[in-house]
Amino acid sequence: MGDSTALPFLPGYTFTDPTKANFHRSQTMTYKNGFAIPKTGPIAGLTEAEIDELANLQPSLTYGKSKPEPPQDFVPAHVAFDKKVLLFNAYFKQTLNESDKEYYRVRPVKIYYYLEDDSISVVEPIVENSGIPQGKLIKRQRLPKNDQGEHWLWKDLNVGNDVVFYGKTFHIYDCNNYTKDFMCSEGIMLNPPEECPPDPYTLSRKEPQHSYVTPPTFDKLKQFIDLDRQVLRFSAVWDDRNNMFGEMRPYTLHFYRVDDTIEVREQRQPNDGHDPFPVLIGRKKIPKSRSSIPSNFPSAVMEISEHEISDWLTEKDLRVGETVIIMDRPFFLYDCDNFTQSYYQQRYGLTFNRVPVELGERKVEVKREIPPYNGFGSPQDSKQNCLSLIAQPPKKDVMKMLENDLKILRYAAVMESPNPEDKNRKFIISYSLAKDEMQIYEPHQRNAGIIEGKFLEYSQVRKPGSSIDNPEYYTPADFAIGATIEVFSRKFKIVDCDLYVLKYLEANASRFPAATIESIRAIHADKLCEVDSEAEENESESDRKFDQTVNEDDIAETVAAVMKKNKEQHANMQQAFLHLDQDRSGFIDRDKLMKITDNFNLQVPRHVIDKALKRCGGSSEGHISYVDFCKLFT
What we know:
Blueprint: E1 29-32, E2 35-38, H1 48-56, H2 77-80, E3 85-95, E4 104-114, E5 119-124, E6 135-141, E7 162-165, E8 168-175, H3 177-185, H4 200-206, H5 220-227, E9 231-239, E10 248-256, E11 261-266, E12 279-284, E13 323-326, E14 329-336, H6 338-347, H7 379-387, H8 398-403, E15 408-416, E16 426-432, E17 437-442, E18 453-459, E19 484-487, E20 490-497, H9 499-507, H10 514-549, H11 555-564, H12 570-580, E21 587-589, H13 590-599, H14 606-614, E22 623-625, H15 626-631
Antiparallel strand pairs: 1-2, 3-4, 3-8, 4-5, 5-6, 7-8, 9-10, 9-14, 10-11, 11-12, 13-14, 15-16, 15-20, 16-17, 17-18, 19-20, 21-22
Helix pairs in contact: 9-10, 11-14, 12-13
């Protein structure tokens, strides 16, 4: 048959090729390394010789041609190399710039190469409590090899080689058996395996933590006990007049014998013009020369220790009349205290004399004067504002307020006024002992035509004629019966007071004038007589009633029966008895016990208790037995 292409493409002129065995459709994509990519050549998968043979072949349709062999099945890379991973052991060195004990650390990693897509992942084994972020350092991906677009392949990996992933160099020192077999099957001979270098930090952790040496003969604990609070004190001066604005600056040098440390403090003078920094050099060990420090020692961030300097200033280097260099400053020692003088004389046989030093003219001390009262607030407020830069309230006497809390002295007074309507006005003056302030209150009077209320709030009242800068205020010493006080141009005459005022003044007679106490005692004399007579009548009447109902033989039983009704006071009286029995003899004075019973308000006449206490046994006359005393309540 001729060429079928010469026939017209019309119905009846076309026919199928009976010898055709491959009915695949032409593909424009092919697979490479598991990825579908477009075909680059005219026919994908053919060599140059096959392409030339096809180009020169003149096909002809002949019947009975042998059947061609079917092509081999195509297997993609993700199927052929599935779960086939090459494992390389590598390490990288991490540089440490902030440590003086180590310069780098060795960090081992594992490099996984996935054959199915030529991807690589780097994983660092996790070490517990390492403090370093570990685990997957580089995720699985195709890693670029250079700037030309090439990527790392399995052919580029070998034992003993260095690989650079994203700027970090990894050195491969070994691989597993599967990787060795795969490389050999591909015709690549691996280098002999190497050993992973040890990590210097890990080796240092395995060394013993402490190196023990023989303790010295002089124990530091004993030194602390023997030499504590023994401080050598020198007076020094720093001559800085050669520099601009320099001067003679006085200092105090303290040498602590307990640990051979030195402290330099400035002797401040008032208004010297310097900042208030009294401590020039804190307490520390001072080296004789700071220039002997190694040049690579980071002195900006670390303090000098005994590893860098072994020559320190000691007490032997301190002498009166000599100059010592401390922190590159010359300090001239010109005097010392008595303890330092005696110590050097006993220890070294040296006697120091004061060296005269001219420290310059001291400024004249400025006398602080309180300015006059400006009229705002009280004089105490104005004075307190002058004592501090920040305004503060006047300080109060807290102890006086606690001792005299709720102690009020009350007086009755009348107003002395030329106005006839003010002659019958009555007032109550209350004086607070806690705050030294007085209050004036006008009580209600029937048909007086004046509203009751406070005439004066609690305040300090200045005496007429006293100066404003140094005022004198009214006190209970001025409140005598018949005395006249002037309160803001109003005059009041004291006509009466409470009985508590007399008791308080008599208890503190040394603080008040005798005339004031006598005037108050005179007005209360009649009242005291009436109170005493009434008390005697009540006591005699109760004694008669008690004697009529109680016989002398059973008086103790009757008193005990009355005291049983006061069981709630038994524990309090028992504690009071033990408080008075300080020597724990079991006996106390009967007169002291009688005062205790008065305070507990027992519903028993005083003479009955006296007779009952006489029945109690005692070591001698006038003493009460604790055992018999408790029987009165049981």
